[in-house]
């Protein structure tokens, strides 16, 4: 019985360590806000009647990349 409890504890610790490492990796990225702005300019240049869809894509990209939502410096 003692080895079974030890096995369960070790498994729980392993899952905890894995979960912590996964969470740390997911939040360690540096936001790439320039990527969103470049995508906005490409959308605007290649799409007739680009507003408001290109602006919506810009804002969504900024939110997804944890950037401060802002208007492009047109």
Broad shape = rod-shaped
Mean pLDDT: 75
Query: Could you list the spans in which at least 5 consecutive residues all have pLDDT below 50?
Result: none
| Count of individual beta strands | 0
The helix/strand series, from N terminus to C terminus, equals HHH
From the N-terminal CA to the C-terminal CA, the straight-line distance is: 70 Å
Number of domains: 2
Into which percentage range does the β-strand content fall?
under 5%
What is the rounded Rg? 22 Å
Secondary structure category: mainly alpha
Biggest β-sheet, characterized? none
- The number of helical runs is 3
Relative helix content: over 70%
Keywords: Signal
Signal peptide: 1-28
Explained architecture:
This protein is mainly α and 74 residues long. It folds into two domains: 1-30; 33-64. It is 70% helix and 0% strand. It has helices spanning 2-27, 33-46, 53-64. It is rod-shaped, with a radius of gyration of 22 Å. The protein starts with a helix and ends in a 10-residue tail after the last helix. 5% of the residues are buried. The mean pLDDT is 75. Keywords: Signal. Residues 1-28 form the signal peptide.
Question: Concise description?
Answer:
Keywords: Signal. The protein has 74 residues and is mostly helical.
Question: What are the SSEs and their pairings?
Answer:
Blueprint: H1 2-27, H2 33-46, H3 53-64
What labels describe this entry?
74 residues; signal
């Amino acid at each position: 019985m003692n080895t079974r409890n030890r096995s369960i504890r070790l498994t729980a610790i392993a899952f905890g360590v894995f979960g912590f490492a996964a969470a740390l990796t997911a939040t360690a990225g540096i936001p790439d806000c320039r990527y969103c702005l470049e995508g906005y300019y490409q959308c605007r240049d290649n799409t007739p009647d680009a507003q408001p869809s290109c602006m919506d894509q810009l804002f969504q990209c900024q939110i997804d990349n944890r950037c401060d939502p802002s208007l492009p410096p047109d």
